[in-house]
Amino acid sequence: MRTLRHLLRLLSNSLRPCLALVCLSSAAFGVVARNDIEVVEVAGGVVQVDDRGLTTLSEAGAKIRRKAKVRVGAEGRLVLALSNGARVLVGPNSQFVVQAFVDSPSKGSLVDLRPEFGRYTIALPRQGPGDVFVVRSSEGDQHLKTRGLYQLNIAQGTSAQQLVCLAGEVLFTPVVPSSGPVRMKTGEQLNVSSSGEVLTTSIEPMNAAGRRAIVEQLAYEREFTVYPLEQNPTATEVSKAAGGGSTAPLSAVLASIEDVVERQTQTNPSPTGG
């Protein structure tokens, strides 16, 4: 844990050139119009196709349309900001549909994300009583239950997929009736595969190397990591991210991960912190 905390602080310090983006995360991103899914950052070949035809997504500020098929090419990458505060980083060689997105001030928000293949990292803000964020795949539905950081990998052309719960809680309900729901928590990963009508699921704790690799990748993709899990990071989170000093806000995402993993380790002192 001491090594991981040290690594996270080093990664946070590497984000100092992007401090302005941290301030924007609670200011500019807060003006995303209700019910909108806005492109915050895009690179490489990214297109969306629906009954209106094909549209190339080439600049920030573009909108993702519901039920449009979005394809991110081999050299592409996409960062989305939803008006409910969620952020989604879509990696290269990915394809997905936002089947539904409703953001009601009185009833809460509903997100129905349907990835076909690729890599998706989701930073979810604190959830209210009426909020639902579900990721539907061919193998089942993954309900992201709490504020947290999640990563889903689906191999193209196969049924294999992996969901990593870096922080938070997930309820996975498989499409196969004979398989019951599976619940996972911070520090665990779920592997799913199927053969015919037989679906296999396995949950295992994340090892330190695997968790470190994800954090390092997110730090490298700094345009995403500076978006906080909370729109207004707390003073405690800011202090931890800055190494205890009075420096301006760094990455609240990394601070939140460190805080959650440390609390998880205190209650379950396993080598992986799971």
How helix-rich are the residues, as a percent range? 10-25%
Would you identify the regions where 5 or more consecutive residues have pLDDT less than 50? 10-30, 225-251, 267-274
- CATH hierarchy class name: Mainly Beta
Q: Could you name the CATH topology? A: Jelly Rolls
What's the pLDDT, averaged over the residues? 74
Name the structural class: alpha+beta
Tally of separate helices: 6
Walk me through what this model shows:
- A hairpin with a 4-residue loop joins strand 5 and strand 6 (87-90).
- The model is unreliable at 10-30, 225-251 and 267-274 (pLDDT under 50).
- The protein has a 16-stranded mixed sheet that branches.
- 22% of the residues lie in helices and 40% in strands.
- The protein has a single domain, classed as Sandwich (Jelly Rolls), CATH 2.60.120.1440.
- With 274 residues, the chain is α+β, with helices and mostly antiparallel strands.
- It is globular.
- The chain has helices spanning 2-13, 19-26, 208-220, 222-225, 235-241, 252-267; strands spanning 37-43, 46-50, 53-56, 69-72, 77-82, 87-90, 94-104, 108-124, 132-137, 140-144, 148-154, 161-167, 169-174, 182-185, 188-195, 198-205.
